[in-house]
Specification:
two-stranded antiparallel sheet; disordered N terminus; membrane; transmembrane; transmembrane helix; 7TM_GPCR_serpentine_rcpt_Srh
């Protein structure tokens, strides 16, 4: 089984994000930490996926109406002949759906958080009566800290 870091899909993305975060040029090499376990890297990948999904929701639900508004302001300020803009059925539909799309931002973001976060998903399914019992240890409730090796409960 290949290690998690050796997968090409994650490696180039992680390298690109490190370049972006550290303001490095592409020619400089990025050294990945070797002391990080595979489980930690898997959790980081899952966190990145969750954050990426939330960013996409923001851009779709808030960015599309803002782009529509900016196009409208641009056409009005520069007095461009916008008869095609006023008569287009697609533009009329976008104008009508923009406030609706913007209002779904918080609902979609909450649904994505519940869908991708395992403890929240299990609790919701249990509340709705779909799942009567929780799976055995769906997430860690008892962890041992590495500093002093004391048992930490309730995480």
């Amino acid at each position: 089984m290949a290690s998690f870091r050796s997968q090409t899909g994650y490696n180039w993305l992680h390298r690109w994000l490190l370049d972006l975060a550290c303001c490095r040029k592409r020619s400089q090499s990025v050294i990945l930490p070797t002391h990080v376990s595979g489980k930690t890297l898997e959790l980081q990948k899952r966190l990145f996926t969750i954050i990426l999904a939330q960013i996409i929701v923001v851009f779709v639900t808030l960015g599309a109406p803002m782009l529509n508004l900016l196009i409208f302001i641009f056409l009005k300020v520069f007095q461009i002949n916008d008869s095609w803009y006023q008569k287009s059925p697609v533009v009329a539909a976008v104008n009508a759906l923009s406030p609706l799309l913007g209002s779904y931002h918080s609902l979609l973001n909450s649904m994505i958080v519940i869908w991708v976060t395992k403890p929240y998903r299990y609790h919701l399914l249990n509340m709705l009566g779909i799942m009567k019992t929780l799976p055995k240890r769906p997430f860690h409730t008892n962890m041992t800290s590495r500093i002093g090796m004391k048992k930490v409960t309730g995480l």
